């Protein structure tokens, strides 16, 4: 039992459509009979099927406010304020000790976590001190794991309304990269050897999370409730690619055995815009994740970003080079990050390329050769860069057209 001033712990379940979130939630509710939980279920459709399933298979009912349904929208965007107002109302009554949230299959976990950890400007209710985010759980479907990274397969499904121009594989990547506990569910449908391989990939994409294999969502509730694992700063740094950029390369025996590798391409000369765009549109299938920033010749004023999740590849303007900031701001930046000046170029400052690639069974050497060929040659370094054809969008990261196989 909580004391009335203790914050109420919250566990959030994310995961793609049909991965097993509802099944897991029901398992938890049924095996923790003593747990006095309230549940928020977010469904994209008009009828909240998941809420009905939770109600039918557990002892909670919607009438006595055990379950809040948020339908026809997503709690990571349109329904963020609604969710807070609802859980604020719940907190006033305060006859429960734990809050469980099941997000919709395409929810991005970061904004949902932010809503609980830091509140949301458009909502009246401020959750800080009332709720405390305890564990972010992502449920990954082992049975459709590889297809999950295939070209927009789920986009053809009419029941899904993509968020903006985001695609489900990007949501899947977010869910893998931002969580404390990762349930690899539906393990009954996949041979052991293949599960080992998936786990090696998952570890490379997300080195911090605890990975647990499950069948029909059967997991020890202590892995999900009151774990105290969530920490916003740590979670936002936990993606494998960030780790890699910070020089934290260490893959275990499992990765090695399954040919899972990663590397950072680092160069301080600009890319030819047309050649690098072509390269991005034709990255080998083995690369599951690529991320980072780059310098496209002719765009000296802006840092370009690359974001590849499965078959989806986005590239375009993303940020600012420190070299383009006013002197006073630059000094502040240098003061805060003493190491940065080591890579500072007299003429070009911090402009350069840092791209992380994570995948399995790809030929790193040939990839690096291809990337080197995309850099400007010595002769091109002396040309007028503004004359180069530039296929990138002028103002945002956009999906690149995929090269025909
Ligand atoms: N074989 C097998 N089936 C499973 C497993 N877990 C869940 N299922 C089935 O998969 C289907 C989807 O499970 P749900 O728990 O509804 O998945 P969900 O993630 O809540 O789905 P959405 O809310 O639609 O995104 C159901 O028919 C489950 O019975 C599992 O481990 N193995």
Automatic annotation (TrEMBL):
Residues 395-405 have a biased composition (Basic and acidic residues). It catalyses: GTP + H2O = GDP + phosphate + H(+). One of its GO terms (molecular function) is hydrolase activity. Transmembrane segments: none annotated. Keywords: Chaperone, Hydrolase, Nucleotide-binding. It comes from the Archaea. SUPFAM superfamilies: Hypothetical protein YjiA, C-terminal domain, P-loop containing nucleoside triphosphate hydrolases. InterPro entries: CobW-likC_sf, CobW-like_C, CobW/HypB/UreG_nucleotide-bd, P-loop_NTPase, Zn_Chap_cDPG_Synth. Residues 260-375 form the CobW C-terminal domain. Residues 385-405 are annotated as: Disordered. Belongs to the SIMIBI class G3E GTPase family. ZNG1 subfamily. PANTHER family: COBW DOMAIN-CONTAINING PROTEIN DDB_G0274527 (PTHR43603), ZINC-REGULATED GTPASE METALLOPROTEIN ACTIVATOR 1 (PTHR43603:SF1). This is CobW domain-containing protein. It comes from Natrialba aegyptia DSM 13077. The lineage of its organism: Archaea, Methanobacteriati, Methanobacteriota, Stenosarchaea group, Halobacteria.
